[in-house]
Amino acid sequence: MSKVDVDIGADSISSSDEILIPSALADATLAFMEENDTAVAQITPEQEKKLKKKLFLTIFCFVSAINLLLYMDKATLSYDSILGFFEDTGLTQDTYNTVNTLFYVGFAIGQFPGQYLAQKLPLGKFLAGILATWTVLVFLLCTAYNFSGVVALRFFLGMTESVVIPILITTMGMFFNASERAAAQPFFFAACMGSPIPTGFIAYGVLHITNPSVALWRIFTIIIAGLTFIMTIVVFLWFPNNPADAKFFTVEERVWIIRRVQASTGSSIEQKVFKKSQFKEAMNDYITWLFGLFFLLQQLANNLPYQQNLLFEGMGGVDALGSTLVSVAGAGFAVVCALIASLTLMRWKNISALTAIFWTLPALVGSIAAAALPWDNKIGILANICMAGQIFGIPFIIALSWASSSASGYTKKLTRSSVCLFAMGIANIISPQIWRAKDAPRYLPAWIVQIVLSFSLAPLILLLIHFILKRRNNERLKNYDENFQGYVNKYQLVESDTSSSNEKGVTVAHESNLAVFDLTDLENKTFIYPL
After folding, report:
1. 45-477: CATH number
2. Is this entry keyworded Hydrolase (predicted)?
């Protein structure tokens, strides 16, 4: 029998010996399940229906509210630009683009250390710390009076916010099974696509303040920061680290949640040990880099929503009040589309790539029309800018969720998410720079980059990923039962720490639930990739 292998790698599967895995390297919910699993009966269909409803009313609403605030904060400068921010800080179109670029420099730098800390620290408390820092930085923006102050604050805000979305998606993965998570993702992203609705109405209200003693953009920023502060308190008190300590679920419900997720994904729920072998596997798996390339190309268009209000002003005939209402209308349209996308994914399985491609088409058509329509057709250009600037968020969140769910092994998932969001950060460093003041008011070079790279080439990469993973699934399904039994016989749990030898007196236990071993998708040939 082999010694305990602290850092399990894909090559270990080929060994003829049994492989012993210390319990410290297994699923973080293992101790909770060992204590409570046998005492909890199997869930009935009626109980499962109630549990799903409770999950959506608690966890889903929680992460969606945080996501909404995240995108309200990101859009703060866009709305500040029509509330006198440029005049008070001396910003121009080009320096505004530099501020947006520096935000994503911080975002890219924060990815790998942030994801590492998210794995090592209690997830809920780490998120609360992020929100507290984020609140302080937004409040400090009210004191900015020049370019250097704005740049510094936005850089650190980007670094602080860099891992919020991965934490929220990881939380969704802990509580929802694979099909529910796929269907819920566009609903989840509707929160950020819908962020211009509450943000726009807040800005609209601020614009109606007469004879203010404080600059309107400062009032607007204080309101947004205040909302973030309230959310910080709520997250600190109630946001769960994982299903085992979720305060708003009974012990019985927690057991059911863990069972459902592990049975659906075949992967661990949480793992607090950073595994170097899984990091290396994620970096060597070309699927990781295909997803990274998708985000690099697709997110070159991500500055469009932040340029939207400036585009409206450049068109003429659209004042500050009008531009906020147009943004609200565009966001409402995007939310409706996100709901349709969710219902589609709920009804039909394994269509992530096709759904993402379909919802890229409105952005492609809108971009072509916005660039090609005669300049005097203001209404047509306005409508197409709104369509192009809002809808492409649906493919983004579908792909981000798919990138995570198509990897097994907790460290591998986080590593892949880091690569994807690092690529997104690089794209967003570049993106503001393609909107050059000299190209105003039509910005044709920016539209061409988006049409060719973001809305044409990027979706084709998702189609390629679909065919590669489908081929892997077909090969695995041929010998599924044989592979499953082989892994059950090969892997064993050892009640010990992460020492490198099997000490005398430890308990060795076989586990029929492969999810507790925290194997990667390349280690576990019974893992079936979601499509």
Report:
1. 1.20.1250.20
2. no
